[in-house]
Design a protein that fits this description.
31% of the residues are buried. Helix content is 54%, strand content 8%. It has 238 residues and is mainly alpha-helical. The chain has a three-stranded antiparallel beta sheet. A two-stranded parallel ribbon has the order 4-5. Strand 2 (22-27) and strand 3 (30-31) form a beta hairpin. The chain has helices at 45-56, 68-80, 84-92, 108-128, 146-157, 161-172, 177-184, 190-197, 199-208, 212-234, and strands at residues 14-19, 22-27, 30-31, 102-103, 136-137. It comes from Paracoccus broussonetiae subsp. drimophilus.
Length: 238
Amino acid sequence: MSGEWKARRFWTSSQLREAADGFEITLDGRPVRTPGKLALILPTAALAQAIAAEWDAQDEIIDPNTMPLTRAANSAVERVTPQFEAVANMLAEYGGTDLLSYRAEAPEALIRAQAEGWDPLIDWAATELRAPLRITHGVLPVPQDDASLLKLRAEVMALDAYGLTALHDLVTLPGSLILGLAVLRRRLDAESSHALARIDEEYQAENWGRDEEADEAAAARLAQMKNAERFWLLSRTA
């Protein structure tokens, strides 16, 4: 039995061209479509150029793992656009159980590290997003103000499908809507957001020793968050 079938490069070069509502990529003159055969219309030339570069970088065998921007754009068109409200609502719900609201009860060093890292973001949410959040020590749920949750939901709903696609990884990977929105608003970069989300894990590693598998998983999450951040920025760059 031969190995599983893999897609092979079938084009010589890629180009981008203007479309009715943005830009599209062509491979030897044929427009790139999503896996579901939908038109892949990109909002900016910068994003289209970056995705075209991913296609140009492919060798004889196409490796989707080296095409994160292409995968994100496909997701924006095929998954996020047709169920925009459901995705937005799912992400907005993170505000009600945001990582930054839940603090350790002990030890004092961890409590202090969380406060130093997270309090500035809680303050930022209250002032810039007009969405103050309560914090608690322990795991018991803390109810958040309905007005704050509505403000956060409005922030999410104001995005387009490309922004919502980027926000998905920037929220679900760290477990915080505030961290995700902070990256979109350039209050943080993806690397800083990832580090803030891992204060607990880093404390445990420093005191009890590192775990190679956990470190590898963390590195993979960081790479995904950086790709999401880049996707967001390119989708906003003319």
